[in-house]
Structure formats: C-alpha cells, structure tokens
Amino acid sequence: MKKLNIAIIGGGIGGLTAALGLARSGFRPTVYEQAPALGEVGAGLSVTPNAVKGLVFLGLGKALDQAASEPLQQIVRHHQTNQIMVRIDRNPCRDQYGAPYLQIHRADMHRILVDAFTALVPDGIRLNAHIAAMTADPSGVALTLADQSTAKADLVIGADGLRSSVRQWCFGGDAARYTGHVAYRGLIPRADLKDLIMDEGSCAWAGPGRVFLRYPLRHGALINCVMLGRSEHWAEETWSAKADVGELQSTLKGWPEEVQRLINAIPSERCFKWGLFDRPPLAAIVSDRLALIGDAAHPMLPFFAQGAASAIEDAVVLARCMEASDDLADALQRYQRARLERVTFMQIQSSAGGERLQMDDTERLKKEPLKNEDTLGIFHYDPANVPI
Ligand SMILES: Cc1cc2nc3c(=O)[nH]c(=O)nc-3n(C[C@H](O)[C@H](O)[C@H](O)COP(=O)(O)OP(=O)(O)OC[C@H]3O[C@@H](n4cnc5c(N)ncnc54)[C@H](O)[C@@H]3O)c2cc1C
C-alpha cells in the first residue's frame, strides 16, 4: 500500500490535509494544483471543534494556536433594533467537545498545511498543474494535464472543490441549482475602523432574507465581513469575482450603524461576490481507484460554516483508512462507510440553514429553539477516533 502512486487533484484545504495525513502515514502523494502560485487567497474560515480535533491529530495544534482566533462568543442582533437575539458562549467548547472553535484566515490555514506537508514530501506539490482529463482502467488511472503532459496514478483523490471536474468525470453531470442566495465577503484592516467599538468575538445581524456577519482574523488585525442574502440576480459561483461595495450599501441601507461603518470601510479591491448553488448529495463518494473529498464530494452551502471543517474530517478519515488497510478497495470502502452518512447529513442541514434564513419574521430567532451546527451535534465528531 505505501508504494501506491497517489494523485491528489486540488491543493485546497481538503487536498492538502489529505496529503499531510497520508504523508504522516508513510505514503508519498503528489498534489496537482492548477494555480500558478500558492498565495494569499480567500478570507475567513471557521474551523469548528470537529475539524480542530483532526488537525491536532495531524500535529498542527501549536501552529493553529499561533495563527487562529478563538471567538469566545457569537452574537446575533436584530437588523433594525440592534438588540441581541441570540448569544452563544463558545467558552465551554474545549471542555464540551475536546477542542476549541477557531476562525482563521484561509491563507494562514493553507500555509500551515503546505509547510507541514512539504516538510515531509518536499517535491509533493505540482503547481500550474490543471488536470484536464482522467481515464481509468483496471491497471490504473491516466491523467492528462492542460499542457498535454501525462501522469499515472494508482489512486486519485478528487479534492478539486465545488465545481469538481473529477466528480463530473466519475459520477456524471453537475446538477447545480441556483438557491436564490448570493454571498459577499470583504476584509477590513482593523486600523481602518479606528474608534469603532465592537463586541468581542463574532457578531451577526439578521433581517428578512439576509444576514451580515463579522469576525476577527489574525488576532484582530483584520475584520472579515460576510453577507448572505436573497437575490433574484444570479451571480457566478466563484471565489474571485469582484463586487461593488455600493451593492452592499444599498442592500443593507438602514441597518445598524456598526454594519454601515463596516461596509463603508471594506476596501473596494477586497470585496467579492458569488452565487450560492445547491447540489443533491451523491449516493457514492468512491469508485475503483477514486475517492472524493471536501467540496468535490459534498458541496455545501455556507450557512453552517462546515465547508472547510468537513473537508478536513474527510481527509483525516481517508488517511486513517489508507493506513489501516492492506488493500486499496477495502480502504476506499471503509472511507465511504465512515463518511457518507455524516456528509450527507451536513449537506442537507446546511441547505436547511439557508431555508431558515428566508424567514421574514426575524423575531422567530428569539422565540424558536436554536437549530445550528452546534445544537445538531456536529461538533462532537472526532475524525481522529471515529470507527473506520
Ligand atoms: C481561492 C479560494 C478562496 C476561498 N475563500 C474562501 C473564503 O474566503 N471563505 C470560505 O469560507 N471559504 C473559502 N473557500 C472555500 C473553502 O476553502 C472550501 O470550501 C473548503 O475549504 C473545502 O476545501 P476543498 O479542498 O474541498 O476545496 P477548495 O479549497 O476549493 O480547493 C480546491 C482546489 O482545487 C483546485 N482545482 C480545481 N480544479 C482543478 C483541476 N482540474 N486541476 C488541478 N487543480 C484544481 C483549485 O484551484 C483549488 O485550489 C475558498 C476556496 C478557494 C479555492
């Protein structure tokens, strides 16, 4: 098994976590990443206790402690009155779930994974390596890169994100459906907010069909802002489409002063927008010589902030299955058995979280029992110890 030639397609959070997990178990995978460089991409990621347990298992506890922020509370306020409707205390997370709730800049999470993986496999990442085609036969998988060069693999791990080509090649067409929601994100240097006094931790404001939230990154040096809202206007499903801050200003006109101050401070070159698309859960996430992980396996709406966390869980469990098996088919079946039910649940519940956001009566948030990733029990999961 350890001699298997493993190709990981996609060097995002899932692909790199899998690469690190496999390398720690003695495999030497190659990561094929289409981007020409590993750079400062994305903004805030929530790494919830379920995922932190996996990263600690991979030896990244100290690096995370240094780079991540730990919001000790999460508040939801009313979009008109600014009154607090929900307050979630995150202090007990370490005791309750065995790991903290963290928020981190995507670039920092990425760098931590790259450093840890390349310390074990220095030539393990190929950049500028867009996989354009893949064919499998009983003897192995043939990969064709965009520059027409080719590579062979015994196992392909499809970690190529939301609009995964690997998923399409192996499981058929992309049944993406526009949900009627768009997302905006913006990153503000804290120094640009001068005298603005903010509650500790993260804060969201909820209104009919919209939620705006902000949380600190890099120990408060940056404030990450996200708006999720209903929109009839379709937007592209991409992480890099620039948005007009003016759209946010007019959409959230009349919302509390803090929201206005935050929106007005978003640098125009750091404001992005994308459409949210729903896809039905897959019936299988493995086939002969293939495993899907992360967004490629279970593209998830962001309402429960479990995209990165579930990719990390997949990667840790897959690496454990590979280490525990003497046979590839057995390892892949173990991985699917361990993961399919959970990721299907997370995918469905994340969509339901979006449906709840459609509410026109914001006060319902105060009256109804809270239904979120925490109360649904998602944080109890431990990818390092779950039976495989
Ligand atoms: C540029 C970028 C910025 C992001 N920013 C945020 C953010 O600010 N906040 C947030 O919550 N989430 C963000 N995400 C998404 C978040 O990282 C993922 O949802 C989550 O971590 C799941 O990770 P993943 O590894 O499954 O997919 P991703 O992290 O999306 O990684 C997929 C990787 O596959 C590569 N790839 C795709 N197709 C091919 C191919 N054919 N050949 C080779 N490589 C390929 C992509 O370039 C990418 O690096 C971002 C993702 C990306 C790619």
Task: Give structural notes.
It is a single chain. The chain has a single domain, classed as 3-Layer(bba) Sandwich (FAD/NAD(P)-binding domain). Helices cover about 30% and strands about 25% of the residues. The protein has helices at about 15-25, 50-55, 60-65, 95, 105-120, 165-170, 245-250, 255-265, 305-325, 330-355, 365; strands spanning about 5-10, 30, 45, 75-80, 85-90, 100-105, 125, 130-135, 140-145, 150-155, 155-160, 175-190, 200-205, 210-215, 220-230, 270-280, 285, 290. The protein has a seven-stranded mixed β-sheet with strand order 5-4-13-14-15-12-16, sandwiched between helices. About 45% of the residues are buried. The site of flavin-adenine dinucleotide has 32 residues, from helix 1, strand 3 and helix 9. The site of flavin-adenine dinucleotide (FAD) has 32 residues, from helix 1, strand 3 and helix 9.
Summarize this structure as a short list of keywords or feature phrases.
single chain, 388 residues, alpha/beta, FAD/NAD(P)-binding domain, 7-stranded mixed beta sheet, 6-stranded mixed beta sheet, 11 helices, binds flavin-adenine dinucleotide
